[in-house]
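ARCHIVE CARD
Drawer: 12
Card no.: 0347
Subject: one protein chain, sequence and derived structure
Cross-reference: see card 0346
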Amino acid sequence: MADESVIAMANKLAEECLAVQKETGEDRLFMEVGDVLGASSQTLEEAFLTAIRTRMAEQQGRKFLANKLRLHRSSTTDVKDV
């Protein structure tokens, strides 16, 4: 397991990278950042990629749930309107 300071750095960098990705539309920017990190610290690269992937997975999970709820509510509304 990585040192707590490495994890903290990776988490902060992941948040910043996701914000830049959102603003620029470069959805694979995190891969480029990972390559830059890996050139000097494989430990930080791995922690960063883990932080990015977990955040991106959370975002996908939230989108999935929001879509499920939207579909459920629209089908419930359709039944009530009949």
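Annotation on reverse: Residues 20 and 26 are 8 Å apart (CA to CA). DSSP finds three helices and no strands in the chain.
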